[in-house]
Design goal:
Distance between the termini: 61 Å
Mean pLDDT: 89
Largest sheet: 11 strands, mixed
Oligomer: single chain
Helix content: 10-25%
Strand content: 35-45%
Number of strands: 28
């Protein structure tokens, strides 16, 4: 065996090792973020791999993925599930390359098509007809997201896209925008829907510089009334990082830690609620005029919140004055400075804030929330479904939660269906009577349907 062949084999081996390490770090990135108060900790972990190695890997793998015209999701073995007393079928379809193109991905639907965007802004779609096939093939939609966001920034951040929403033939893409070094904002792009090529332009920007890139940004989008859409904006570690140490979620002169409505025609916004930490679930019920949302707590204290009559007085959900969680490291770690600016009182209503309809300690890391009484029919009840991330299925992580509410919107029944995957996004498609999930642990699309 000559020297050239030996060097080639060694190079391939090193690339495989680097890919494994790189993906392992990204897999645990969010876990470290929840365990560490200072986000610098996770950034240092990601820096363990030299940039030239990461760039080399990207050139070999990610660049090829970007140039694919189609993405095949292969069918896995059918699973039988139960939610409460209802029997369900759970189908999953996996793309082996999806995680490499951006760990966090989001799904949407419009005009008989299912859409998906990766954390790096790769867009794809498939028609409802293909969902009947053994394998699902998504077609790539060319777009200019990377040109707007910046190629180097996209490759570095990897998961900067925060949501995808389609309405009135318009595509809205939420992401964390980099203005310059030490200046990041929540922003939304918009474009006319075109299945061949989408040309984005800026629709909305908070224009509030945050000093570091962060996962605690919210960024979910939802439908709303009167030609408006909803957007959640996270607190960017307002209370929990010494580089911030501000009270923005309780400051009406700031959009940080808020849920807002944005006019589709003018881009003008209105604050609907405040005192949020990181709302990754957002759903508007047009029938009853209610906003449902989920919010990540710190060490415990995840919340399910409702905003009835959201066009009235601005509701305040208390973060970081009230929370049923604690600052990270409690009680061993000395967090006295944090408790001075964010005392985390164990009541909301006693201090004039809105109580969550349910909270979770330990945390379940809730993501998307949807409402439908058509998937599983229970007369006279409001039914919510919530996806969860986390790492401990016995605590309610890696699952789909069902909350059944009575007429007073109090939780009457709570059912959990483990899926052993981090559920990043979830939608209900009425035409199919199915719930679709994006499962980021394996890069899969999950489909829940009744087991008739």
């Amino acid at each position: 065996m000559n020297k050239k062949i030996i060097l080639t084999i060694i190079a391939i081996f090193l690339v495989i090792v680097c890919i494994f390490i790189y993906n392992s770090i990204d897999k645990y990135y969010e876990r470290f973020e929840r365990l560490a108060q200072d986000n610098n900790f996770t950034q240092q972990l990601k820096k363990l791999i030299p940039n030239n190695i990461k760039s080399f890997i990207k050139e070999i793998i990610s660049e090829k993925i970007v140039n694919y015209d189609e993405f095949q999701f292969k069918n896995n073995e059918l699973q039988l599930k139960t939610l409460g007393e209802v029997k369900l079928q759970f189908k999953t379809f996996t793309s082996p390359f999806l995680k490499l193109a951006g760990l966090r991905s989001y799904i949407s639907y419009y005009n008989q098509n299912l859409f998906l965007t990766t954390g790096t802004g790769i867009l794809m779609y498939t028609s409802f007809d293909t969902l009947k096939e053994k394998n699902i093939v998504f077609k790539k939609i060319d777009n200019n997201f990377e040109d707007i966001a910046g190629k180097d920034y996209v490759e570095w951040a990897k998961s900067l896209v925060k949501n995808l929403f389609i309405k009135n033939n318009k595509v809205y893409l939420s992401y964390v925008k980099k203005i310059k070094e030490n200046c990041f904002t929540n922003a939304v792009l918009v474009a006319n829907l075109n299945l061949e090529n989408i040309v984005f332009k800026e629709f909305f920007d908070t224009k509030e510089c945050q000093p570091f890139y962060d996962g605690q940004t919210g960024g979910n989008l939802s439908d709303y009334k009167n030609d408006k859409i909803l957007m959640s904006i996270g607190d960017h570690h307002s209370y929990e990082d010494p580089r911030q140490a501000n009270n923005n979620p309780q400051n009406l002169n700031s959009l940080i830690g808020k849920i807002i409505s944005i006019d589709e025609n003018t881009g003008k916004y209105e604050i609907l609620s405040m005192g949020h930490r990181n709302s990754q679930g957002l759903y508007y019920d047009a029938k009853d005029n209610i906003i449902f949302s989920t919010d990540h707590g710190p060490q415990g204290g995840d919340e399910i919140n409702i905003n009835t009559s959201p066009d009235g007085e601005i509701k305040n959900y208390g973060w970081g004055f009230s929370s049923y969680g604690e600052h990270y490291g409690y009680p061993e770690r000395d967090n006295s400075k944090l408790y001075k600016i964010a005392p985390l009182k164990k009541s909301h209503s006693e201090y004039g804030f809105v109580e969550p309809i349910k909270y979770f300690t330990p945390s379940i890391a809730p993501t998307q929330i949807i409402k439908t009484e058509k998937f599983i029919k229970i007369p006279g009840k409001t039914i919510l479904y919530i996806g969860t991330l986390g790492w401990h299925v016995e605590e309610g992580d890696l699952s789909v939660h069902q909350l059944i509410l009575n007429e007073a919107l109090n939780v009457e029944e709570h059912n959990i269906m483990p899926v052993n995957e981090r559920v990043r996004d979830m939608i209900y498609i009425e035409e199919l009577n199915k719930i679709f999930l994006f499962l980021e642990s394996s890069g899969s699309i999950g489909i829940l349907e009744l087991n008739n």
